[in-house]
Specification:
Elements (H helix, E strand, L loop, with lengths): L24 H6 L12 E4 L14 H6 L1 H16 L31 E4 L5 E5 L14 E8 L5 E5 L28 E6 L2 E7 L6 E8 L14 E10 L5 E10 L13 E6 L4 E8 L8 E8 L4 E9 L9 H11 L22 E10 L4 E11 L2 E3 L5 E3 L3 H4 L5 H28 L6 H9 L3 H4 L3 E3 L10 E3 L5 E3 L6 E7 L7 E6 L22 H6 L22 E3 L12 H14 L1 H15 L3 E6 L6 E5 L31 H16 L2 H18 L12 E2 L12 E2 L2 H20 L3 H22 L18 E2 L4 H8 L8 H16 L12 E2 L15 E2 H13 L3 H15 L14 E2 L5 E2 L9 H8 L3 H4 L45
GO molecular function: beta-glucosidase activity; glucosylceramidase activity
Protein name: Non-lysosomal glucosylceramidase
Keywords: Glycosidase, Hydrolase, Lipid metabolism, Membrane
């Protein structure tokens, strides 16, 4: 049932979470030094909070009936992929054994080197070391524990620093971790999170006279392209003794030789103690991965100081078959508070047998005087220098540029992490404090803004060094005896798309798809100027003459490698572009060089074609994998960059939103960065993308039409004729393309796009504007007059890019107010976000599962559009619905795993999803960059003489024929006379 409450019901909503409600003021004062106390603006939980099991959505009977044929084809495809040992990119039939729960917290590590999440109660889980594989179950041997003894020996305390008995601990009384003391209630312990840091405060647990703060720090530092790639985290314990006796406090960090799941039982794993520089000591855990994946080495370490003593137990097991057991190391710590110093000389352990688990322990002990304070620092790092994709190449991860390709670099990474974490925190605070201290912003927004960035770490990100695969085609042997075979790319024919509209002109290439090599073995990919002779360059006919606009001096600092991130952990496709459209604001704001790198990848992809056949599951028809001129849906799954469009439900070459989204993102990124080199590089792809779309203008009015199937990001929501969503994106793309053409001196193209815009705008408003909002589409279906929350997506982008509004101000505000009044406030009084579709009678559009869903990222995008239109109150109320349902104590428990969306009863679809990063578009709207505010303005309505433009359709339908090859472009921007 839909709550039809109208009006503002938020009179008693909590705008902030005062830390005093979770920690006593006295404890906060005691910890108010060395960043040990959490900031006032933080997301908070008590450790004894119940982590309820999350509820997944289900389709209705009618939806299941409509999708039956798709379901059968998808089931068959999933089974076929499984028979080849591969995971299908979309698999709704296989469920994890560990049911998702409301237990997540801030993940560990930087970007692109694998990730490990840590729940708010302390468990380490969701390991994603191997690309595309997420092991969700917690590894319960991975724990921090504490042992406390007071002078005189009268008081002793010991406990794992995680509350209660967890599922999977096994039977009490065994030799494993069930023998440890799991007696922390969590009633007086709290978790505080502002990504990339988290604080756990133990306020007198387990010792009433000891205050403990554990601060978790990861190297996620905006505009830092080195440290932000490191696979490491630091845990800083601050100990405050409020008792009358001196206390010996020993902290224990235990870690299993595992990458999640049952990997600890596969055998061949080796542990090795080490002593490094500056007092950094610990254990290396060399993990032999299965199925030929590159090996992984973990390093757990602590930093020895004048007051802190570090010892290790390099290898213990979980059964009585092991010489050293989990029970024996616990008993040793409870008795002595440390291990034998001779353990550092133990050398490498014997490789584990199948079915046997190797774990390691690092202890750090210190005496804390009465009313004294002490700091103890641990670090965790993992090194898997090579990333291998199932069907494709092996690459070096980004951090290897700074630490080399040995797995043993984990020891150097933990050392540098322990030496540098204070500087990391300084940089993080410089970035975050201006927003956290801004009293004009609600507190829930501040910490949700930062915490949604968790996805850039735990969203399956891959960051490689450079643009080429690891070139060693021999079997490489690591220092631990693990084999890792590197495969060379397979060559296929690639044909570039038509680039300009005047004349039938194309340039063809043979190379690897989106290539690392061309036909001659050059490693530069699709390099357009290789098709032109030196003589032609001398004549000035090379289209890359635009390069004279930029500084040609090479700059190594500009090479940030290549970056991939998943659509979601359940939708395993890299850099899904229709979703990146929403998420990209976060990368542009914080790591703009990565954002430009992704856009360059897609620009190359636009100009390429992959003729391999693919069966599309929605209709059962076959087509080619990648059409020239079309923006790919994604960069692939098992062979990214070389086998794009892993998505195979629909033929996305017929989608109407991908190409406009590419043009809009390119222009926004160009306007924001002012990077003329980037603009020159991608301009041919922009022209090709725009020209490709002209075939979808069936009646010559300048406006594209949808084709009666879900041909856009709402891939279950059918569209007929002109649509508000795609039509608005197309109008915005015309404006952006015209503006970019003018900036690059391409006046003929600018005039062409201006004329098309004028005609398309008139047709759009005539056919869709109904006096208060734009209809869903121009068809005659039951939902054609629905109010779509995302109807102004194009307006959102032009406003974000400093371009003129697409429509009169009163129309924009009227449509946004309609969305607010209906899609937001008529669903549970505004406490859930904006539902995608709403009928004008106030009932949710239930024509398909997506129309009745609330999409988190879309809601943030709508809120950003409201901010840009001067409707800030409505904007924050709209976005607060996502916080209330997803992040608040009274919500559904989706923190640090924000799904694509949920239904009005709170059932989720697709956890840990890319699109919610769109909350950064709100911050973008609140503080537009100076480059955009000062960018040259374009008047789309000047000199609008109607110039008929011949529609460039052809008999081949949606896939364009390749025209005769020529040597140069005919468009006059390049002054080509041939």
């Amino acid at each position: 049932m839909i709550d039809m409450v109208s009006g503002n019901i938020f009179h008693c909503r909590k705008h902030s979470w005062p830390s005093e409600e979770y920690i006593s003021r006295a404890t906060l004062q005691l910890l108010d030094f060395d960043s040990a106390a959490p900031p006032r603006q933080a997301w908070r939980r008590r450790l004894n909070s119940h982590a309820n099991i999350l509820k997944e959505f289900s389709v209705t009977f009618m939806e299941a009936l409509k999708m039956m044929r798709l379901g059968v084809r998808l089931w068959s495809y999933v089974r076929e992929e499984a028979s080849h040992g591969r995971r299908a990119p979309i698999d709704p039939f296989t469920r994890e054994s560990c049911k998702p729960s409301a237990s997540q917290g801030v993940p560990l590590g930087g970007m692109g080197s694998g990730s490990i999440s840590r729940g708010f109660r302390g468990e380490f889980r969701h390991m994603q070391i191997v690309p595309g594989i997420c092991e969700t179950s917690p590894v319960m041997a991975n724990q921090f524990s504490i042992f406390i003894s007071r002078d005189g020996g009268n008081k002793k305390f010991s406990s794992v620093l995680a509350p209660g008995q967890h599922e999977g601990l096994g039977k009490l009384g065994d030799q494993g971790i069930s023998s440890w003391n799991w007696n922390l209630s969590g009633q007086h312990s709290t978790y505080h999170a502002v990504f990339p840091r988290a604080w756990t405060i133990y306020d007198g647990e387990p010792d009433p006279d000891l205050k403990v703060s554990c601060r978790q720090i990861s190297p996620f530092i905006p505009h830092n392209y080195e440290d932000s790639s490191l696979p490491s985290a630091v845990f800083v314990y601050t100990l405050v003794n409020t008792g009358k006796e001196r206390a010996k406090v020993s902290l224990l960090f235990t870690w299993a030789n595992s990458i999640g799941g049952n990997s600890h039982l596969s055998g061949g794993h080796v542990n090795e103690p080490f002593r490094g520089e500056d007092g950094v000591s610990g254990v290396l855990l060399h993990h032999k991965t299965a199925k030929g994946n590159p090996p992984v080495t973990f390093a757990v370490a602590a930093c020895e100081t004048q007051n802190v003593n570090v010892t290790v137990s390099p290898c213990f097991g979980l059964t009585d078959q092991n010489r050293v057991t989990a029970k024996s190391i616990w008993d040793t710590m409870a008795e002595d508070g440390s291990f034998d110093l001779g353990n550092f000389n133990a050398g490498s352990s014997v490789p584990s047998l199948p079915g046997e688990t190797h774990c390691a322990a690092v202890s750090a002990s210190a005496w804390v005087e009465p009313h004294g304070k002490c700091t103890v620092a641990f670090s965790l790092a993992w090194s898997s220098p090579k990333v291998k994709f199932l069907k494709g190449n092996t690459y070096n991860r980004r951090y290897t540029k700074f630490y080399g390709t040995s797995e043993r670099s984990a020891a150097h990474i933990v050392h540098d992490s322990l030496m540098n974490y204070k500087w990391w925190e300084e940089e993080i605070e410089k970035w975050q404090n201006p927003i956290l201290s801004d009293d004009s912003l609600p507190d829930w927004y501040k910490f949700t803004l930062f915490n949604e960035l968790y996805f850039l770490v735990s969203g399956g990100t891959i960051w490689i060094d450079g643009h080429s695969p690891a070139r060693d085609n021999q079997s490489t042997m690591s220092q631990n005896g693990h084999n890792s075979r590197i495969e060379e790319p397979t060559k296929i024919e690639v044909t570039a798309a038509t680039v300009h509209s005047k004349g039938d002109v194309v340039i063809e290439h043979e190379s690897c798809i989106n290539g690392f090599e061309d036909a001659n073995g050059n490693g530069n990919g699709l390099n357009l100027d290789q098709e032109n002779s030196d003589e032609e360059n001398a004549e000035g006919h090379n289209p890359l003459q635009l390069s004279t606009l930029v500084d040609q001096k090479p700059d190594d600092s500009e090479d940030v490698g290549r970056f991939l991130y998943l659509e979601g952990v359940e939708y395993v496709m890299w850099c899904t572009y229709d979703v990146h459209f929403y998420a990209s604001y976060a990368l542009l704001a914080l790591f703009p060089k990565i954002e430009l790198s992704i856009q360059r990848d897609f620009a190359k992809a636009v100009l390429s074609e992959d003729r391999r056949k693919v069966k599309f599951l929605a209709d059962g028809n076959c087509g080619i994998r990648k059409v020239k001129g079309a923006v790919p849906h994604d960069l692939g799954t098992h062979d990214p960059w070389h086998e794009m469009n892993a998505y195979n439900i629909h033929d996305t070459s017929k989608w109407k939103d991908l190409n406009p989204k590419f043009v809009l993102q390119v222009y926004r990124d160009f306007a924001a960065t002012g990077d003329m080199s980037f603009a020159v590089d991608v301009w041919p792809a922009v022209c090709a993308a725009m020209e490709y779309m002209e075939q979808f203008d069936k009646d010559g009015d300048g406006l594209i039409e949808n084709d009666g199937f879900p041909d856009q990001t709402y891939d279950a929501w059918t569209v007929h004729g002109i649509s508000a969503y795609c039509g608005c994106l197309w109008l915005a793309a015309l404006e952006a393309a015209a503006a970019m053409a003018l900036r690059l001196g391409d006046k003929p193209f600018a005039d062409k796009f201006k004329n098309m815009f004028s005609r398309a705008k008139s047709a759009f408003e005539e056919k869709l504007w109904n006096g208060s909002y734009f209809n869903y589409d121009s068809g005659s279906s039951s939902n054609s007059r629905s109010i779509q929350a995302d109807q102004l997506a194009g307006q959102w982008y032009v406003a974000s890019s400093g371009l003129p509004s697409l429509f009169d101000d009163h129309k924009i505000k009227s449509a946004l107010q309609k969305i607010f009044d209906f899609n937001v406030m008529k669903v549970r009084g505004g406490r859930m976000g904006a539902v995608n579709g709403m009928h004008p009678n106030g009932k949710v559009d239930e024509s398909c599962m997506q129309s009745r869903e609330i999409w988190t990222g879309v809601t943030y995008g709508v809120a950003a559009t409201m901010i840009l239109s001067g409707m800030e109150e409505q904007a924050f109320t709209t976005a607060e619905g996502i916080f209330t349902s997803g992040w608040s104590e009274d919500g559904f428990g989706y923190w640090f795993q924000t799904p694509e969306g949920w239904t009005v009863d709170g059932h989720y679809r697709s956890l840990i999803y890319m699109r919610p990063l769109a909350i950064w578009s709100m911050q973008w709207a609140l503080s537009l960059p100076k480059a955009i505010l000062e960018a040259p303005k374009i008047n789309m309505m000047d000199r609008m003489l109607y110039v008929p433009i011949r529609a460039s359709h052809n008999d081949a339908g949606i896939v364009r024929k390749v025209a005769n090859k020529t040597k140069c472009f005919s468009n006059s921007v390049f002054h080509c006379a041939c």
